[in-house]
Amino acid sequence: MAMVVADRALAQDGWLCVAEQAAGMRYDRTAREWVATPFRTTGEDYVVRRADGGDVALWRELLQHPSVEFLWVAGEDGKRARYPCEGDFRRGLLRCRIFGTVDFTINRDTLRYQSYYQGGWLSGRTGDEPDTDSPSITIGRCSPL
After folding, report:
1. Is the pTM of the predicted complex or chain greater than 0.90?
2. DSSP track, 28-55
3. Strands, E, within the chain: which ranges?
4. How far apart, in whole angstroms, are the C-alpha atoms of residue 94 and residue 29?
């Protein structure tokens, strides 16, 4: 039975990954400091799927590198933009970089994912800006498409 499940996961062409929990740091303007806080996960669903010819052509053009090779793409569910993932699964993990700022990793064996958004902490944002760009981590589960 376990071999059948593993074989299906290896042959899978894509997943829908749905956020379950998120937390991070937000700037509290009253206290004038960054504080830990939970975040809503509404709408943070991702699709991970095998790259097709259109994906490869687009990223070769955007990166201006004709030998760009990737097998998978990831992006927000319902949106056209898909971002290339690094190579193929290694030890069951696939890493993708979405929007250039979100590190997204899916575990094909556990069907879990984790994403991390760097946010404004490292750039020195203080909360004076309208959007303080809060760093966050999101976890969720994936199901086969």
Report:
1. no
2. ETTTTEEEEEEE--TT-EEEEEE--HHH
3. 14-28, 33-39, 45-50, 72-76, 83-84, 93-98, 102-107, 112-117, 136-144
4. 37
Measured in degrees and rounded to the nearest 5, phi and psi for residue 82 equal: -130, 135
Judge whether 51 and 58 are in contact, CB under 8 Å. Answer: no
pLDDT digits (tens, 9 = 90+) for 75-128: 888 777 678 887 889 999 999 887 767 889 999 999 999 999 887 777 766 656
Token duo for residue 47: 């699709």
Residue with tokens 């800006």: 129
- Residue 11: helix, strand or coil by DSSP? helix
Of 14, 13, 34, which Cα lies nearest the Cα of 23? 34
Best CA proximity match to 137, nearest among 38, 9, 12: 38
8 Å CB contact between 28 and 122: no
Buried b (16+ CB within 10 A) or exposed e, 114-138: ebebebbeeeebebeeeebbbbbeb
